[in-house]
Structure formats: structure tokens, C-alpha cells
Design goal:
Blueprint (H helix, E strand, L loop, with lengths): L1 E4 L2 H5 L5 E4 L10 H10 L1 H12 L7 E5 L3 H20 L7 E7 L6 H19 L3 E8 H7 L5 H23 L9
Parallel strand pairs: 1-2, 3-4, 4-5
Helix pairs in contact: 2-4, 3-4, 4-5
């Protein structure tokens, strides 16, 4: 697992061993074009990072993106296309890229909502082009509705635990033999 971002402060909050800060600026300030340009300028570094992080013996790579911020929204489509080409180069089991797209809460503002809308629209086009499969959408506003009285300082911990527990359950279910269903 690896994480990329244009801001050191965002990378510092993620507890994973493989991190790549790209671009000369500190963050994209909700500006997709800044992040997209930085990504395109350093695409080869990102590919080297992916190779070092996941290797070449892979089935499919999942890209997880926060759709509202500048970096996530700005690099999403370019990153997916880059990952697809990487998977084809290493002859992965599938050339399709899995995407987990996190939508922001409404309280994050109009600019963030517009970024998320445009990003979701672009990723849906990649689904239609059969580049992305599966597309998993995490709607943080809906998660917020599940926990309306949760304090802000606990929201993300609870929300993340809730979502990851579903993935954990799914992983456990698909490893069990069953006469009724198969994955």
C-alpha cells in the first residue's frame, strides 16, 4: 500500500510505510489544475513509486481518492490511466483499475463539492470506457447522517472503522467455501 499527495502535512497523518510527496508546492489548495500539472510533470516518479510499492506480480490495483480536494480531484483521472498502463506493462491479471472514491460532506463547501462532482463525472466516463471496475463510492455526507451526534474529533475514526469493517467482512466472506455462492 502506498499514498501520494502534494502536501507533506496530509501525508504525515497517514500511517503507511510507503509515501510519495510530489510537486514543488505544499498542497494544491483545492485547485485541481495545480495538482494535475504536478502529477504530469512527475508521472515517471509516481510509476517508479508504484513499482516499488506493489511490485510487478499483481492482479489489480485499487486507487483510493478523496474527490473534493485539489490533489485527489486533480490527479484522479491521470493516475487511473497511469495505473492502467502500468498493469498492462506488467501483464497483471486485469487491466481494469479499481477505484474507491470518497465524496466530501456538504459542509466542506461549494468548491470542494464542485471538485467532487467533476471528479465523479470523469470517473464514470472511465467506467463507461471499461477502464475502471469496480467503482466504489463512499459518501461522507451519508456516513455523517448515520452518526448525527458524533463529535467532529471522533467522526473520521468512527467513519473509517465503519467502512473498513465492511471491507474486512467482505474479504472474510469471499475466502469461505459455499455451495450457494462464489466470488
Amino acid at each position: 500500500m502506498g499514498v501520494i499527495n502534494t502536501a507533506d502535512q496530509d501525508l504525515a497523518t497517514v500511517n503507511v510505510p510507503n509515501k510519495l510527496k510530489f510537486g514543488h508546492q505544499q498542497g494544491a489548495g483545492k485547485n485541481k489544475e495545480i495538482a494535475k500539472k504536478a502529477f504530469i510533470d512527475e508521472r515517471e516518479d509516481v510509476v517508479d513509486f508504484v513499482k516499488a510499492t506493489v511490485g510487478e506480480n499483481i492482479d489489480r490495483i485499487f486507487v483510493t481518492v478523496g474527490a473534493g480536494g485539489g490533489t485527489g480531484a486533480g490527479v484522479c483521472v491521470e493516475l487511473i490511466k497511469t495505473i492502467q498502463k502500468y498493469q498492462e506493462t506488467v501483464k497483471a491479471s486485469s487491466s481494469k483499475v479499481g477505484v474507491i472514491l470518497a465524496l466530501p460532506k456538504l459542509s466542506e463547501g461549494k468548491k470542494v463539492s464542485l471538485n467532487a462532482y467533476e471528479t465523479l463525472k470523469d470517473v464514470c466516463e472511465l467506467v463507461d470506457q471499461k477502464i475502471v471496475s469496480p467503482l466504489i463510492i463512499l459518501d461522507n455526507e451519508k456516513i455523517n447522517d448515520l452518526y448525527p451526534k458524533l463529535p467532529v474529533n471522533k467522526f473520521w475514526q468512527v467513519a473509517n472503522a465503519n467502512i473498513t469493517s465492511l471491507f474486512h467482512l467482505f474479504n472474510n466472506i469471499i475466502t469461505k467455501s459455499s455451495a450457494f455462492s462464489t466470488f
